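Teaching assistant here, posting this on the class forum so everyone can see the example we discussed in section. The complex has two components, and the goal was to see what a joint structure prediction looks like when all of them are supplied at once.
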Amino acid sequence: MTKSYEELPLTPISDAPSTINLTGFWRVMKPVVDKSKCRKCTLCWKFCPDTAITLVDGVPVIDFRYCKGCGICSVECPAKCIVMVKEGTE
Amino acid sequence: MRTVMTGNYASAYGAKLSRVEIISAYPITPQTSIVEKLAEFVTTGELKAKFIPVESEHSAMAACIAAETAGARTYTATSSHGLTLMHEVLMWASGARLPIVMTNVSRAMAPPWSVWVDHMDSVAQRDTGWLQFFCATNQEVLDTIIMAYKVCESRGVMLPAMVIEDAFILSHTTEPVDVPDQELVDSFLPTYAPEFKIEVGKPMGFGSLVKPDQYMEFRYKAMLGMKEAHDRFLRVEQEFKHIFGREHGGLLEQYRCDDAEVVLVAAGSVASTAKDVVDSLRAKGTRAGLARIRSFRPFPYDEFKVLGGKVDGLAVLDRSYTFGATGAMFTEVKAAVGSSQKRPVMKDYIAGLGGRDITPKVIEKIFEDILMHRKRDEETEVEWVDVAGLPRRWH
């Protein structure tokens, strides 16, 4: 509901970082990692624009709460170990 | 301490006396000696501040925005193309309600390339939500920076301010300047304690997305801040006068306007020259006066409404031009005076662009012209002064 200008702070301030906004449900295509082919080059981790990839022993683990399925990791992967598949078909 | 210094050093001393904590700037002619002096103050330890060198003016303002968001008192200085490069982030500073103070050494925009004074750069930032104070002397530059922090940081205002000095005429010319004692300035200007700030270990979102149902309310609040700045500035200057024993005339300095029949309206250093012309015209029997716009934002509408009802003629000297309209000062003055009961004859004089000298002779001719001018049509309301090839002679 619209608040009166008197109730508002001077400028919009939220008491939480933008990580409260989950963006995983935007996804149409989903990255699937074949860990056996991974060369641990970390390029996917560096390129992910949503920092939705963490490395476990050098191998990517994707946080699907935030991954929007943009596919950049899949394009950048020199080992071709990340494949984009339609959400729900993997 | 009474000494002699340039307008740029007056800016640097003004920032130092205001105990700024973060300075971020990129050098540009004719602003450079401001940041050189401040860098020296920081290096020698005379000023306990952090100087952040950056790769552009856009980044300088972005650094100031970040530092101010973290609760630090910040300062920067720029000029012309540097100021216009900042344009986007100037809007951010005001929308985020960050009371940053900046000196703009007002310089013409290119092309043609120029390093000399006119007000195009400042006037082009009219709608950014910054307070804009035009100065006429180096003393006023120093004093206005200190006053600007006090005005901007007050709870009812919380907006940034631009203190404007004319390129070379003030920036590189030495004048006697009284540098007040630090203890006196401290008693006038308390440390900056914002209502909200970003803190380590406590993540927050600033300036986040607001949908159409709530956007206007935030803009309305910024409008209230600018409105409050008008009265706040007057109060702050009276307080300043009480402590330091001098003032510079409120938002609209009126020189010999009480019984004037014709008044010249001007901003910046040319107003000092115009005061001499007013005196010499008065000695010859012409009831001349000068109204100097010190604050372009907030604009002194009420002051002009009263003045407009008292005089027969108003000559507005614009040191910039708004293409497709008139000079920017003229537009504002005309709007303000238009609602006064007795509307004077008004004319806009475009003069002094790109550092062209506005001599006492030129100002005298402007007064002569407005005394003769009795038309109220838009055909003749704007005249370009001293342009080679035009029939009228100004010297």
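For the discussion questions: The helical segments of chain A are 43-47, 72-76. Chain A touches chain B at residues 2-5, 8-18 (CB under 8 Å). Think about how each of these relates to the inputs above.
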